[in-house]
Write a structure and sequence with these properties.
Blueprint (H helix, E strand, L loop, with lengths): L5 E4 H4 L1 E2 L4 H7 L7 E3 L2 H14 L6 E3 L16 E4 L4 E2 L5 H8 L2 E4 L2 H9 L3 E4 L3 E3 L6 E3 L7 H8 L3 H105 L2 H103 L1 H56 L12 H17 L4 H63 L2 E6 L10 E6 L6 E2 L5 H18 L4 E5 L7 H14 L4 E5 L3 H4 L4 E8 L2 E8 L3 H8 L1
Parallel strand pairs: 3-4, 7-8, 14-15
Antiparallel strand pairs: 1-3, 2-6, 5-7, 8-9, 9-10, 11-12, 12-13, 16-17
Helix pairs in contact: 6-7, 7-8, 9-11, 11-12, 11-13
Length: 656
């Protein structure tokens, strides 16, 4: 690319601080991907190359042809300066910076930008609002940026670039997938919370309806009790008035009796005494009737007080439930809003994921044809070389003819000037008709243009680029193949070692299983691989044959037999990878006495290399232990007794 005089792309040459990024991108958005070349000749060469290759739209900026741009900074508050002062670049690219940003004034606010725009200045705010002169148009840049992906796409002219692009796309797709999964989990969480809230809402609604029913019933009972109390109070008042009347009547009678005793005879006194006795009896009866009514009134009043207290309590509970219901409604509304937002984010993420997958497939399909295109380029290089040689010969011959014509034209012009000067001495007029050579010149120029168009000026450059790309791709391919062969050889060696290690361990465990099972039961047991060709993806069969019984797998035997088989397998693994100690919890519970005895003998034999801690209730196991802890209950409390085998003491002293 150096043959075209390319200096780089605009976004590679220029830089700015984060604060002025939006303003800079809004101004140079149309030129940000333009190609910068040295001079106008480089521009023409690159333009011909782009036209021949039928490439898409491309903007080219020649450095030497950039006009000088300079404006006077308006003196007004809120003006920060010329935007080019806030853009950074090398000294050689100053004309480019002035060309793009030298006529734009950077201001603080939109109001100042509009005022200066009406005055004839191009203005830009820090937030990216770009106003053309005379307020003819406005460009607003919210959040534009040049992504790393865009740079890769623009600069990827090889298989490596496309592979880098595919890797970037896959990483982006993976991020989108992870984000979609998080959104799914978030939506599920919100749905669970929403279902719980709806369940709580339903329960609260049911409780509220029950409370409303109970409150209505209590209110009805309250009304009936109040009416009954009012009736009783009226009865009490009536009886009280009667009592008062009776007492007043009694007092009058007593006064009359006293008067009669003083003034009347004995028979009249007896009659009055009888009447008085009768009145007293009536008063006693009325008192007896009044007592239960008063008791009932007191009971009703106490019951009414209880009902009013209960009513107050229920009213408080109702308010609490209403408050809880309103809060749950608010939470339900927020959850529904969050669910809708999460669903919308999920849909957006899924659509972006689909677009990225489509782009990935396109790039994968494009990268798959790069090798074929490279082969086509190699085949076309030979034909281009031959065409180049023929074109070079034709160009040299045409150049010789052109030099001859130029010399003849120079001589003719010299002669013409001499003749013109000679004629001028004789009064020659310039307006006189002269010989027309325009048709001859135009025919010669058309022939020259035809010769230029028939030549491929970019063939050498294209050949150099293609050959360089082919050589670099071939070297990278060879390097990758060597690395691949090394990795494959390493993987094969690891797989071989892994397989051999597994088979050695398998043989050891199989031998130990056969030996231990034969000692314990007199039968036979062994291990078999389901698929010897693929030992890591297949399973392992544990086959057992007790004396007098057919062989069976470990999954189809009884509980006691499974215990025995599992113990044998653990003891076999002990030989492969011994542990410092083993802990067994009543593994002999399902074994009969002979098998328990055999198990205890094998554990005693294996205890020479490891320590066995075993919980057992069988005498044959306990009697072979060197250290015994017995646990027994006494008065509701567990007690522990310790017994150490006396045979252990001499061995311990010998070790000391």
């Amino acid at each position: 690319m150096q043959d075209f005089g390319i200096e780089g792309l605009v976004y590679e040459i220029l830089s700015w601080e984060k604060k002025y990024e939006r303003a800079s991108l809004a101004v140079c958005s149309d030129w940000i991907k333009a190609v910068v070349v040295k001079d106008f000749e480089s521009l023409m060469s690159l333009a011909e190359f782009v036209t021949d290759k039928k490439l898409p739209k491309l903007k080219i900026i020649p450095l030497e042809a950039i006009p000088e741009v300079k404006i006077e900074l308006p003196k007004q508050n809120g003006v920060l300066g010329i935007l080019s002062d806030y853009v950074k670049c090398e000294k050689s690219f100053l004309p480019l910076k002035n060309f793009l940003f030298g006529n734009v004034v950077l201001v603080e606010s939109r109001k100042i930008a509009i005022q200066l725009s009406k005055s004839g200045f191009k203005t830009i705010t820090i937030s990216g609002e770009y106003f053309e002169a005379k307020a003819t148009s406005v460009v607003i840049d919210n959040n534009s940026k040049i992504s790393k992906l865009t740079k890769i796409i623009n600069m990827s002219d090889s298989v490596e670039g496309l592979q880098q692009l595919i890797a970037a796309l896959r990483q982006t797709v993976l991020k989108k997938k992870n984000r979609a999964k998080k959104l799914d989990l978030l939506v599920k969480n919100y749905e669970k919370r929403l279902s719980l809230s709806e369940l709580g809402m339903t329960t609260t609604t049911n409780s509220l309806s029950e409370l409303k029913t109970r409150i209505a019933q209590i209110i009805q009972n309250k009304k009936s009790f109040e009416s009954r109390i009012n009736q009783l109070q009226r009865t009490q008042e009536r009886i009280s008035r009667e009592l008062i009347n009776r007492k007043s009547h009694l007092e009058s009678l007593e006064s009359q009796i006293k008067l009669v005793r003083d003034n009347y005879a004995e028979p009249q006194m007896d009659r009055i005494a009888n009447e008085l006795t009768l009145v007293n009896e009536q008063i006693v009866e009325q008192d007896k009737k009044l007592t239960p009514i008063q008791n009932e009134l007191k009971q009703k009043q106490s019951h009414l007080a209880e009902l009013m207290a209960h009513d107050t309590k229920i009213t408080g509970e109702k308010k609490n439930l209403q408050h809880t219901c309103s809060s749950m409604n608010q939470e339900k509304y927020h959850l529904e809003v969050d669910v809708r937002r999460a669903t919308k984010d999920k849909e957006i993420a899924e659509s972006e994921l689909v677009k990225l997958r489509d782009e990935e497939q396109k790039l994968i399909s494009t990268s798959g044809t790069s090798v074929e295109r490279m082969t086509e380029f190699d085949n076309s290089l030979e034909s281009l070389n031959s065409k180049e040689r023929d074109s070079t010969k034709e160009i040299s011959s045409r150049e010789r003819n052109t030099d001859t014509l130029n010399r003849d034209l120079t001589e003719l012009r010299q002669k013409e000037s001499k003749i013109t000067s000679l004629l001028a001495t004789f009064g020659f007029d310039i307006s006189i008709d002269v010989f027309d050579v325009g048709s001859t010149i135009s025919s010669l120029e058309s022939e020259q243009n035809r010769i230029k168009n028939s030549l491929n000026a970019g063939a050498p450059t294209q050949y150099v680029e293609i050959s360089y790309g082919y050589k670099s791709s071939s070297s990278k391919k060879n390097m990758l193949e060597r690395e691949r062969n090394t990795i494959v050889a390493f993987i094969e060696s690891v797989e071989k070692d892994k397989r051999q290690t597994f088979l050695d361990a398998f043989d050891i465990v199989d031998t130990q299983v056969k030996d231990a099972f034969s000692k314990m039961t007199g039968g036979s047991a062994w291990l078999e691989l389901e698929n010897e060709d693929d030992i890591f993806d297949s399973g392992l069969n544990y086959l057992i044959q007790f004396p007098g019984k057919p062989k069976r797998e470990s999954t189809s035997i009884s509980g006691g037999e499974k215990t025995l088989a599992a113990t044998v397998f653990v003891l076999a693994l002990q030989k492969l990878n011994p542990s410092p100690f083993y802990l067994f919890d009543e593994i002999d519970a399902a074994l009969d006495a002979p098998n328990t005895e055999k198990l205890s003998n094998i554990i005693k034999e294996r205890s020479e290399g490891s320590q066995f801690i075993m919980v057992s209730l069988k005498d044959s196991v306990v009697e072979k232990a060197r250290l015994i802890y017995g646990v027994f209950p006494k008065h509701g409390v567990s007690h522990v007794v310790k017994y150490k085998d006396k045979r252990l003491l001499p061995s311990m002293s010998n070790q000391e």
